[in-house]
Amino acid sequence: MGSLGKEISICPYYASRAAIKPAEIVTLPYPLLLQKSAREALGISLKGHVVIIDEAHNLMDAIAGIYGTEMELRELKLAKEMLGNYFRKFAKRLGGKNRIYVAQTIRVVDSLVGYLVRMLEGSAIDGVVSQKDLLSGKGADQIDLFKLIRYLQESKLARKVESYTDHIRISQPQTSVSSSKNKGPPKSTPILHTLTSLLLALTHPTSEGQLFFLKHENDVTLKFQLLNPAIHFDSIVSSARAVILAGGTMSPFSDYTSILFPSVPAHKIKTLSCGHVIPSSNLFASVVSKGPTGYPFKWTFENRANTEMMDELGRVLVNVCTVVPGGVVVFFPSYRVLDTILARFAVVQQGNNNSTSKPKSLLQRLEEKKTVVREAKEESVEEILRRYGNAIAEGKGGLLFSVVGGKLSEGINFSDDLGRAVVIVGLPFPNARTAEWRRRLRFVEESAVARLSGDYLGSASSSLTRLGLKGGYVEKEKDEEVENGETGRSQNTEPQIQIPIPHEIQAQIAHKAKEEAKDFFENVCMRAVNQSVGRAIRHRGDWAGILMVDERFRGEGVRGKLAGWIREGVKGVKEEDQGFGRVVGGLGAFVRGRRGGV
């Protein structure tokens, strides 16, 4: 259809929309499938159909990304200026209602700007934002946001203001609105459209999502984070005949059930996990809890500046690069950790070489073994992979420093010599100290308490029913219909029986809820680990070594969340197997066996 559209100069996208209704299989990107409004605009009904969602390990984040939104202070200031220019130019031409709504929009934006300016000047780096505080200035709290949003959507004000602003930029290139265009990275969505999404977020109840402010460098961001993806996913679950979540790295899966399918009975949810296509002999997986000198690895927040541990990691990588041919990919928890460790590697270490040799840094020693390439935010994926691939093709081999959740941890295949070893440094937990993650974990805990309490009360209510008590009431007479046609109760019905939850049950529920929040936090981390590790082995004949450099990987709670094909053969867990000599010796023997075709 794409080729035909080009041939006859007709847009294939709109032609494909017309072909949706009679089609038996329809492929859609996440945003069009997961938004009910987008499905309705395309005329897609899921009723009675099977929905298959691929790469579903991203599903919860995808839903949160679609329904979340954020704006920086500089963007809000620009939006205020754009609206002001438009209002001054067209105020006399606007009708009374239009003039009022444009003025209200400016007042709301002015209030948002004022709040963020105060936050920028304050000491807190982040925090939860209430709508009351956000709209406390310029009389914005007196404005009906629902009516204002409906006006913005129906009047297409955002498009009109953006169009007029583009005209100003062309005709008056010296104006401030023109110079502001190039400040910061370009956004794919026009600012006024993002503003409309942000105002819509202000109307959401706190049970669905939460507003936050986040300070960074010389700016501050106002962000709406969706907390409950089930609210928007339920329209798919309730309509479709079946929903299939598919992916190569779905594990761990436990939180999908409680977060995405809270209304679906457990017996209706089926899981299927398949092994990897490679034989177990093509994988070497080991925990590295100690380095060559015996120094232990535990990459916690408290150890983020531990230079001894960084040096020990460097020595581990020198050994790995010595025994592993081709490419070695190292994943770090974050760009900040990567920058810190590489800066340490660049420091010349006295006494780490023979006295007759010139002292070298760990980075220099690594560069003697392989060509070092690092992932950088500002560099394209294509350029990074080109340099890395060339180093391997030339025979020296490559050492690629990357980041879990970064550009290279997903969707990139490091098959064959591109990835003969993957090294995971630490556990990439999100920062639980941020306001956003504190709120997310509290939401998971609160939701678990509500669900578990409901389960207990439901069970207790069933027991009352068996005793002749129905629906929490002692039944004296049947329900009778009142005048308006609604079902009511006769005056003789006795008061509702309150079912108390015993204190010991409440304590058990609270403990279980905390465990679910902890489980959710660990699952986010371990799905990212599994996704990164899965980059290496891409076909049946492929082989690779996987090293997990952190003693916490020995724990059953963490190790149990590894993908099954890795978990079953992990070495370095028992006390007697932890010496680094055993690990590197085992890795070397594995490599020799694979290269020899044994």
TrEMBL record:
Q: What is this protein called?
A: Similar to DNA helicase
Q: Where is the stretch described as Disordered?
A: 475-496
**PANTHER family to which the protein is assigned, alphabetical:** ATP-DEPENDENT DNA HELICASE DDX11-RELATED (PTHR11472:SF41), DNA REPAIR DEAD HELICASE RAD3/XP-D SUBFAMILY MEMBER (PTHR11472)
An example GO BP is: establishment of sister chromatid cohesion
Keywords in UniProt for this one? ATP-binding, Helicase, Hydrolase, Iron, Iron-sulfur, Isomerase, Metal-binding, Nucleotide-binding
One GO cellular-component annotation of the UniProt record comes to: nucleus
Q: Name one Pfam family in it.
A: DEAD_2
Q: What are the transmembrane regions? A: none
Give the originating organism.
Botryotinia fuckeliana (strain T4) (Noble rot fungus)
A GO MF annotation of the entry reads:
DNA helicase activity
